[in-house]
Amino acid sequence: MAVELVYQYSKETIIEQQKIALTQQLTKVFPLSIEQELKASTLNKNAYPNLPLLPKKENINQSQAWFVCKKNQQNGFILSIRSKEGYSGTIDLLVGISNANKITGIGVLNHQETPGLGDKIERYKSDWIRQFTGHSILSSSWNIKSQQNTNRTHAFDAITAATITSRAVIKIIKKTLQQSSSLIDKNHCSTL
C-alpha cells in the first residue's frame, strides 16, 4: 500500500523527468538551431516496411519519430530503430538524419551488450558511436576497417573484442540511411 502511494505521488515527476531526458538525448542526436523545433510523430511501420523501426510498446505496428522543422519546412528527422543482431540481443538506437541524408548523430536507447565490451556503443562510455556523424550512404563503405572496400573512401573502427556489436550497429545505420529517402522526399512538418 505504501509503495502504491509513493508511486502515485511521484508518477508525474517521473514522467516529466523522462520527457526531459528524452529531449536532451534527441537534441544530442540532432542539434537544433534556435529557429528549429522537434515535432513528434507516429509512423505506421506498414507504410515503411524496409525501415528497421523500433516498435512502440503500445502498438507494435507503430514507431516514434521526430521531425526537425524550421518555419514548417522539414530539415531532417530522428528515427527510433532496432537491430536484432547484437551479440546479446536487440540494440535500440535514435538516429538523426538531415535532409541531405547525412547522419547528424546517434544515441543508444537500450541494449544488452556485454559490460566493458559491447556497451562501449554508449556515448558516455566511449566516443565510438560519434564516428558516424556527418556520413551519408555514399561517403563510406559501411564496413569495419579491416574489411575496407577500396571503392569507397571510409570504413569504420570496430570496438575491440565487440566485433558483432560493431557490425550490428553499422549494418542497421546503413539500412536506415538506404531506406530513409521516402521520409526526406515528403515535408512532414507542414502536416504536423
Tell me what the structure shows.
The chain is of the alpha+beta class. The protein has one domain (about 1-190). It contains three helices and five strands, in the order H-E-E-E-E-E-H-H. A five-stranded antiparallel sheet has the order 1-2-3-4-5. A hairpin with a 7-residue loop joins strand 3 (about 75-85) and strand 4 (about 90-100). The mean pLDDT is about 85.
Q: What is the topological layout?
A:
Blueprint: H1 2-29, E1 37-44, E2 62-70, E3 73-83, E4 91-98, E5 103-111, H2 163-179, H3 181-185
Antiparallel strand pairs: 1-2, 2-3, 3-4, 4-5
Work out the count of structural domains: 1
Question: Order of strands in the sheet with the most strands?
Answer: 1-2-3-4-5
- What is the helix content? 25-40%
Q: What gross morphology would you assign?
A: globular
Mean pLDDT across every amino acid position: 87
How many helix segments?
3
The biggest sheet amounts to:
5 strands, antiparallel
CA-CA gap between termini: 42 Å
H/E element order: HEEEEEHH
Radius of gyration from the CA trace?
18 Å
State which percent range the strand residues make up.
15-25%
Number of strands: 5
In the predicted model, the low-confidence regions spanning at least 5 consecutive residues are none
Structural class, by secondary structure, is alpha+beta
